[in-house]
Amino acid sequence: MFKNKNALWVLVMILALPAAGAADEFMDPVRVSGGVNRYIKRYGDARVDLYINRGDRAPWEQRWSQSDEPHRDYCGPTAGRNLLFWYGRDASYRVLGRDMKTNNWRPGFRLWGACAGVCAGEIAVCANVCYGVLKKFVSRGSLPKHVKSALHRHRPPGFNVYYQDGVGALSRILKPLSDGNPVAVLQSTKRKNLHWTVVTGYFKKRGRLFLRFANGGERTWGEFIKHWSLQKVVRTRAARRVLKRMGIKPYVLLYYSRNGSPWDYTGGFLVRPLTGALVLDLWKRKNPGKSYKFSYVTRRNCRLRGIFRK
Questions:
Q1: Distance (Å, whole) CA 25 – CA 17
Q2: Which of 70, 72, 173, 291 is 20 to 30 A from 92 (CA-CA)?
């Protein structure tokens, strides 16, 4: 029937090609919450794309953008709303802004007390001017501890909030993405600027790794690691000390996941504030027969102060 073997092979290859829309079969469904499914496309270790619906042609990037924000410096609530949207949930800007203490994390009475001290009793003019300036420029945006607390409060059923900082490892972002969990990160793209955004995918192009961001386009890993390290704002030891007291540290990330235990000791930081007894019990179960030193962990401080040793 076929005199030309090449023509036969061409016909076989054509028949083997998937029909239009059949590429959807390569999407892995992920049950997020309340019967809602999301979809992931994995291309080995070269690419991960997230999709809201099975038939979507373009990967998901964001639902909410900075143009939707009711006030300035509301990138924290925007990142939170994008995370929640992926899991089929939502909370308004008003609710998330309140829970994240956005633009209001420094209590007014503390600012007033500081101004009264600086102005040496000149309450009528100096202290009022000082308070207005500090209120405008100091208590801006959302601090990591408040973002973490708000995400925990609004977490989808069956999911835990994972928090990490201090280590700028690529695997800390790629692993959650490959599991179908977008990652919220705190970065600084320019001086005197901190910005929350969400990593929604990655891909390799011409030998370089690119990350895809909600409201931020695409950037190479090399570019992002500089922004993620906060090197543009942490320029001096004094600045580092001040930011640390505010809980602002390099390589902050948060994401939801139902895998594993509700905490992560990688890098020495607890993902969620737990009671000391529970942390000690979990550690003893994973490390039977080992000795340890331990100090109590409170909800105000999620750093594990205990030094575990063999």
A1: 13
A2: 173
Distance CA 29, CA 54 (A): 8
| Token reading at 171 | 């695997």
**DSSP states of 239-291 as a string?**
HHHHHHHTT--TT-EEEEE-SS-S---GGGB-SS---HHHHHHHHHHHSTT--
CA angle 100–300–240, rounded 5-degree value: 75
160 exposure class (CB count in 10 Å sphere: 0-12, 13-18, 19+): buried
Q: Which residues contact 144 (CB under 8 A, 6 or more apart)?
A: 163, 165, 186, 247, 248, 249, 252, 254
Name the token pair of 131: 């308070």
Which tokens is 111 given? 């600012």
Give helix 144-153 / helix 75-86 axis angle, nearest 10°: 30
The 10s digit of each residue's pLDDT in 282-296 is: 555 556 555 544 433
Of 220, 177, 221, the closest CA to residue 199 belongs to 177
* 47: three-class secondary structure by DSSP: strand
Q: Look up the pTM and report it.
A: 0.69
pLDDT band at 215 (very low <50, low <70, confident <90, very high): confident
Q: Which amino acid is at 274?
A: L
- Helix (H) or strand (E) segment spanning residue 14: helix 5-16
Residues 6+ apart with CB under 8 A from 156: 32, 33, 34, 84, 87, 88, 89, 256
